[in-house]
Amino acid sequence: MRIAIVAVGFLATLMALTINSIYGLWYLCADLVYVILFPQLVCVVYMERSNTYGSIAGYIGNSQSHS
């Protein structure tokens, strides 16, 4: 867990230093939130059988497929 925290901190610092504008950082963040969380929102609103376990599995699966 400590290694993951250091790795994520390093990657965040690297991104902050290499991206030239705040707009670029905002666009990246908005895109990631939309891609990762939007399918879960659609399932919760329109599917009666969706639950917490499925939401967590979808979050992990979707995060893995986009990295």
UniProtKB/TrEMBL annotation:
Record's keyword annotation contains Ion transport: yes
Entries under Gene3D superfamilies matching the protein: Sodium/glucose cotransporter
Superkingdom in the source lineage: Eukaryota
Family annotation (InterPro entries): Choline_transporter, Na/Glc_symporter_sf
Alphabetic keyword roster: Glycoprotein, Ion transport, Sodium, Sodium transport, Symport, Transport
A GO cellular component annotation in the UniProt record: plasma membrane
Any one GO MF annotation of this record: choline:sodium symporter activity
UniProt signal peptide: none
A GO biological-process term: acetylcholine biosynthetic process
Protein name: High-affinity choline transporter 1 (inferred by orthology to a C. elegans protein)
Organism: Anisakis simplex (Herring worm)
